[in-house]
Amino acid sequence: MKKTTGGIVKAIRIVFSIAVAVAVIFIPAGTLAWPEAWILLGAYFVFVLALVLRIKKRDPELYQERTARQKEGKRWDKILLSVYTVFLLLMLVASGLDAVRFRLSHIPLEVKIGAFLSFLPVGLLFFLVYRENTFASKVVRVQKDRGQRVIDSGPYKVVRHPMYAAIILMIPAVPLALGSWWALIFAGLVDILFVVRTALEDKTLKDELPGYIDYAKKTRFRLIPGIW
User: Is 12 helix (H, G, I), strand (E, B) or coil?
Assistant: First the structure.
């Protein structure tokens, strides 16, 4: 019974998330006749569904970690995630207002196509991260309850935070795909937040996760090989 109830709650959350996404994108635009937005939403939900089903099948513990309500986590991380949510919503609202309602931006078709195509390597990077790291929680916490250890394989050989690298690459592509230059302002703010989160999480792992300092000496860069 408890398992069934949990499944229903998760289904309700998914439906609610879809409804919010549709509202945030199309209400500011003032129309449903926005092909780029429909393509983006369709691609996003297909990708998320494929990723969730893969994780649930291959790594049930990771699936539970990412879908359970997290009471743990750093206070600063909760603040950053709250601000991130606001900036993300503002980015989508600005995209609708700019690209459709007021038509302030004029982004060439080839730029939009390039933005959509950029989601392919970024999506692959997400799959690789979840394949390698069973401790990829949605909040910053050292999972002593799951026996967390340092992961140094796959993309973690290249940078220490490949998931954040993927997010930082993905976010600016969204307003470009939707046709808005102005929404890039909020995309930039989101990316700055994730750079800050990377630095703070890296410090947390050095302080609390055994072996991470040695790993950091071997894999020197957090997000961008050769730079930082």
Answer: helix
Rg (CA), the chain: 19
Query: CA 205, CA 228: separation in Å to the nearest integer?
Result: 17
Q: Give me 5's structure tokens.
A: 């109830």
Domain around 13: 2-218
CA dist 71 → 67, 197, 228 (Å): 12, 19, 31
| 228 within some domain | no
pTM of the entire structure? 0.92
Q: Residue 99 corresponds to which tokens in the numbers above? A: 């690209």
Whether the pLDDT of residue 2 is over 80: the answer is no
How many Å apart are CA 92 and CA 24, to the nearest integer?
7
What is d(CA 174, CA 169) in angstroms, rounded to the nearest whole number? 10
Domain count, the chain: 1
- What digits encode the pLDDT tens for the residues 74-114? 999 999 999 999 999 999 999 999 999 999 999 999 999 99
CATH number (domain holding residue 114) = 1.20.120.1630
d(CA 147, CA 155): 21
